[in-house]
Automatic annotation (TrEMBL):
Pfam families: PQ-loop
UniProt source species: Trichlorobacter ammonificans
Membrane spanning residue stretches: 34-55
Entry keyword Membrane: yes
Protein keywords: Membrane, Transmembrane, Transmembrane helix
Topology relative to the membrane: Multi-pass membrane protein
Protein name (database record): MtN3 and saliva related transmembrane protein
Subcellular localization(s) per the UniProt record: Membrane
Record has Ion transport as a keyword: no
Amino acid sequence: MNVTWVGLLAGLLTSIASLPQVVKTWRSRHVRDLSIWQPLLLSLGVALWLVYGMLIRDLPLILANITPLACNLLLTGMKIRYARNDRETTP
């Protein structure tokens, strides 16, 4: 297997890893068990990888970090927005 394919497969898997959590959170509108720190710190790390990829002009690295950045920023936003709903529905 070519080294490039290993990198592309790794990028694909890490890019889609947070999609199930995004979909579940979007559908349920419940974020009680989701820590704000996980998507927030992951967003920061992925953003830095994205900047690094841009600085060294590595297209696979850039592409592999766009989707997880968007997903984790979305999760962070949903955690903030839906946290009010969880507080209102908690007995």
